[in-house]
Structures are given as structure tokens and as C-alpha cells.
Amino acid sequence: MTFRPRYTGLIDKYRDRLPVHDDTRIISLGEGNTPLIRLQNIPRELGKDVDIYVKYEGLNPTGSFKDRGMTMAVTKAVEAGSKAIICASTGNTSAAAAAYAARAGITAFVLIPDGKIAMGKMAQAMMYGAVTIQIKGNFDDGMQLVKEVAEHAPVTIVNSINPYRLQGQKTAAFEIIEELGHAPDYHCLPVGNAGNVTAHWIGYCEYSCSSGDHVTEACAYCGGKCKFAGGAITGKRPKMVGYQAAGSAPFMRGGPVKEPETVATAIRIGNPQSWDQAWKVQKESGGWFDECTDELILAAQKLLAEREGIFCEPASATSLAGAMRDIQSGKIPEGSSIVCTLTGNGLKDPDTAIKQSTSPVVSIDAELDAVKRAIFENTII
Ligand code: AN7
Q1: Which residues line ligand 1 (CB under 6 A)?
Q2: Residue 109 has pLDDT above 90, yes or no
Q3: Exposed/middle/buried for residue 210 (C-beta within 10 Å: 0-12, 13-18, 19+)
């Protein structure tokens, strides 16, 4: 019998590619190392010869990709002596901040839009012991307030404007390259603040730099520091494709959206914090931005659960919704390999799931005949 060393989180795994020292106290919950699942039924139904993989980030410790960034941000905040962190959030950043603060023994203050975050995320912030501040405003209002208050109070901002967040999140690209043996042709993500699309591009660029295929712009990301010991796998980088919810699509409108609205509350963001970086990613990678209606987003969420057994939250399904449409139209050509990031777990938002499900739910007496009838009436031949 052979034993693998215990997986202890992404900072330990990618220590030489992250800004930590040998004696840095790592605040980790074992994040990263998420499954890259090849879809089997959906591509067949699309009738297209494509390889679609989903990177199931909903299996991180607090149920979203935010854990990748938060392990770095909180590790560095603690290293710098900070006793409190703060963020504005549509729900997932606040859940991650609250959990990592609890782990570190510091305080988390989270600003959330009153009544506009999914129930699971609210439960997380409360259980992990954060101070939850509900504001009568949206994420963008909260973000502005966080920036202002951090100038007056001894708190570290852990939104993605904190550069350590993107450093942690870039590791998702490392994992994908290491599993596939190369970068995919297309990488599709849901876009809110555009931190994650930016972070993935940093990751892909650092890996391609290390292959010796130095690209001037890419090397600007790594600063020549991306030394992957023996890690020269490929110089290929994907086209980065960012999809927004139609009611919250500033990248499609060319500027901030005042009153963003969407059922995908995680990406109900009108004023993206990584605006310039994301446009740079789009240009450098040769990818694009597009938008999906709420209807299309929910349909993709349901299809993924029903056909593949993978439950993601609505915002996450935006990546697949957009990708399926672009595959169907031929914009993403046959023969392509595509990775869609599923940013958050479906369990985060049970209300939206239950509301849109059309699966049979029957209530009966606890009697054999009634069970037989229920089975008979719901058997599809
Ligand atoms: C599930 O939690 O901004 O484009 O405050 O929770 O990097 O902002 C969440 C964002 C996609 C968008 N999918 O990522 C927050 C927050 C899910 C998310 C995004 C978010 P970015």
C-alpha cells in the first residue's frame, strides 16, 4: 500500500509560486484541488464534437472559488498583524472571509445587500461568526463604503482589489493545465467584478512563461518570477470568455450599470472592480465578453443538474449557458476543448433551485398502495 501525503491546501502545494515565506503561518481549510469533470451527456445532446470540462469550484471548503483567494488574503493579513478583515459581498466572499477569519482567530466584518443574498451564504456568515452588516443598497454601494471605512479603521480589505486574492485564485489555472497536460482552447467564466477571469489569466500566463515560450505581455504578469521547477508543459494559453447576466452586464454596456438586477445574485454587480484588467485579458487572450438572460442561466443550471448530476448555483451556470450558445452557433468551433468554471455550489441557493425545479414531488399517505401508485404514475418508459 502506498500513501499520498495529506493535501493541505493550495498555498502549500504552490508555495514557490505564491508570495509566502518559509515561516509564514498559513491559514488554510484545504481549499483547491477541485474536480475537473468531463461532461458526457450535454455535448452529445448538443450534437457537437467538443470536449467540455467543468471545474467544480463549489467543492471548496465554503462552497465557492473565493476560498482560493481568501486563504492567501487572510494569510497575508495575519502575517501583517491585522486583527480584522472587511469586505463587501454578494454572499460568497463574505462566507469565505468569515470562515478564514474564524480559522485565524480574527474578526470579519461583511457588508451585504439587504435581502439580496442567497440563504445558504447568509447562514455561513452567521455561523462562522462574522459581524454581518446589511445595507440598504447593492454590492457596488457596499464596495464604495468598504473602501472609505478602511481609510479610517484598522481593517484589511479582502475584496479582490486585495492583490493577494488574485494570487490565490490563479492556482485554478495551474490545476487545469496539470490535469489536462495543456491549457484548454477556451476558458469560460461568469463575470461579476472580473477578478476571477483576471486571476485565471495570470495563472495561464505564468505557466506558459515557464515553458520558455515567453510572451512579452505575459511576462509582465510574472515579472520573470514564474519559475516552475521542471514544469514546462505548454506555451498554449486559452481564449478567455466572460459571461455576464443580461441585467448586470457592464462589460456589454461599456460602463457601469446603475441598478443591476439578476436572479444570479452572486453576479449582481454593476461596477466591476477589475474593469481595466479584464479588458486587457480579453484583448491579450483573443476572447470576448457576452451576456446571458436569467432564463438561459437557469436553464443551464437545471440541465447540468439533470443531465450530469452536477449542482451549481445560478451565477456559476452562466459560464455553461454562454458556452453552449457559442458552441451551438459555431463561434466556439468543433474540435475545441472548453473549460467552464462552476464558481459556486448549488446548495448555496436552495430557494431558487426549488422554485425552478420541475421534478415530481408527491405527498402521500405512508401506505404501500400509495407508494406503488406514486412509482407507477411517475415512471417514464
Ligand atoms: C458564484 O461574493 O463578488 O468576476 O462578493 O460568487 O471574480 O467577481 C462573487 C462573485 C461568479 C464573479 N460566481 O466572480 C462576492 C462576489 C460566483 C460568485 C462570481 C462571484 P468575479
Answers
A1: 64, 89-93, 160, 190-196, 266-267, 313, 315-316, 343-344
A2: yes
A3: buried
Atom index in ligand 1 nearest the CA of residue 139 equals 5
- The whole model's pTM is what? 0.94
pLDDT in tens, 189-201: 999 999 999 999 9
For residue 245, pLDDT beyond 70:
yes
Taking residues 250-275, what's their average pLDDT? 98
| Residue 215 in this model has a pLDDT that exceeds 50 | no
Ligand 1 centroid distance, CA of 316 (Å): 9
